[in-house]
Structures are given as structure tokens and as C-alpha cells.
What does this fold into?
Amino acid sequence: MTPQRAGKLFFTVAAVQVAAVFLMGNVGLYFPWIYDIIPSTLISEGLLVLPALSFAMLTPASIPEMFPVRRVRVRTVLLTLVMLAGVFPAVALVNAVTMLFTENAAAALLPDTTVYPLWTMLLLVGVIGPVCEEFICRGYIYGCLRRSGHPIGAIVLSALIFGLIHLNLNQAAYATLVGVFLALLVRASGSLVPALAAHMAFNSFEVLLMYMVPDEAIKAETGELSEVARMLEMQTAGEGAAADAMLLFGASAGTVIGICVVAAGCVIAALCIHRIGILEEHPAVREESTFAQGRLLGIFTVLGLLISVTFIAWRQLYL
It folds into this structure.
């Protein structure tokens, strides 16, 4: 497992995903059902899993080394969920800022999402998606990158790759932040389990929010809409950048409190991440000192970054 293998996988995934977007654009003219959220999500996740499995089979390493799913204590998982609550305000803030320039990618799926039973979306978005992405991004890719001997660089680069594979500006921004958090969990615990738990909880919470919107929209007509629900409704209804800016930067006590919560949440999360390493008493961090420092960025990693960033920019400007 080397950083070069991670770069080649990222390049392959980026190229395949971008090609698939254009291909589906043509196929969709004849088979419009392919745009439905279930087949489109399964296709998207499949385009991540198949290249990763191919690379894994060609990698001279054991399965536990490529995909470390070792058992952790229950309190570690519970602590992970507490940390997620502390990080979530920062994610929400990044999401709100990006919405000044682009649409909310999750909200755009709202009409297609809520036509299905809640359990279907929880299984698809809250379980299948996180499992695929964690095994690939925090398993294989981060596992390869950390062997460069640059622990911080490996965390940041794996998070950036995780963000960019979503191929849209809104999700790329906040997914990169979440990716840093999840990679820190893996580094601290030596296992994918805490990251899986956090990712599943995060996605499931987003799904639950989506299913809350229709009821809140009905309440809005009778004037019973809460302030939090009103913000969510304005975002999903596309009230425009001016309304979002007013909500985000309005001179109010809520803004000041929100900034304090974000700062406190990040500090608490950092302390908890450090504490997990003590609780687990794992050798993963000590093992990093044995890695000889090498090149973190290879030609294929750079090409993958260029492909992803160029496509996101093109999508932002012309779609």
C-alpha cells in the first residue's frame, strides 16, 4: 500500500465518474428512470466500489490492512456520536456559506427523496452510501496515504478526495470538513468502526431533515413554522442568495451564539478525538513513526484533482 496506489484509484474514480455523468446524460434521454434517486445513487456508489475492489485485489496487502474493521469499545462509538454533535454546527455553517454561490445539493433531491418510504432512504443514504465511502476513502485511500510518513497531509488529502468525489461545490465543501473529522477518527482508533458510525449518523440525520420539510411547509401556511424550520424551508425553496446572506450574516444574537457554538464544538471534538486514542490504546499512531517519509502527491493524484475541480467548476458555471 503506497500513496501512488491511492492516487491511481482516485484518478480512476474521478475519470469514471465524470465520464458516467455525460454518458447518463445521453442514456437518460431514452431511459429517464435512470435519473431516479435509487438507481442513480446505486450507480454512483458502484462506480466507487468496483474500481476500489479491483485495486484491492491487485494490492499485496491483507484485507484487515486495507480495510481495518477491528472491534472498538461501545463507549468509543458513543463518544464518536457526541463529537459529531459538536462538529455538526461547523458543517452547517460551511453548507450555508456555499449556498450563497450554489444550490443545496441535498435539498435539490427533496422531491425525489420523499416519495419513497423513510426506511428506504435510510438504508440507501444512511447505510449503503457510508459503508461504500468509508471502506474506500478512510480504508484504502487513507491507508495508502498515511504510509507517506506525512500524517496531517494524509488526513487533509484523503478528506479533499472524499469531498471532490461528490462532484458538486456544495457537497464538496462540507464533505471535505467531515472527511477530516472521519480520518482523525480512524487515525485515533485504528478502526473504521467509529468513522462508519459517525458517517451513518450524519447521513441519516440529513435524511430525517428531508422528511421533516413537507410537514413544516404545511405549518408555514398557518404561521406555525419555527425559526429553525423557517431557515430550512427558505433554503430548500430557493429563496435566493440575498435571503441566505441575511440569515447567515444578520446582526443578531443568534449569529454570535452560533459562532461560539461552532468554535466550542470544534475544540470539544479535537479533545475527544485525542481522548479516543488514549481509550483504545492502539498502536496505529506509534506505527506512523516507522514510515519513511516519501512523496504524498503523485502525478495521478494531481490529475484526479484537476479532473474533479475542472468538472465541478464547469458544472457550477454552465449547469
Summary: The first helix runs from residue 3 to 27. Confidence is low (pLDDT under 50) at residues 216-236, 241-253. The radius of gyration is 20 Å. The chain has one domain: 3-318.
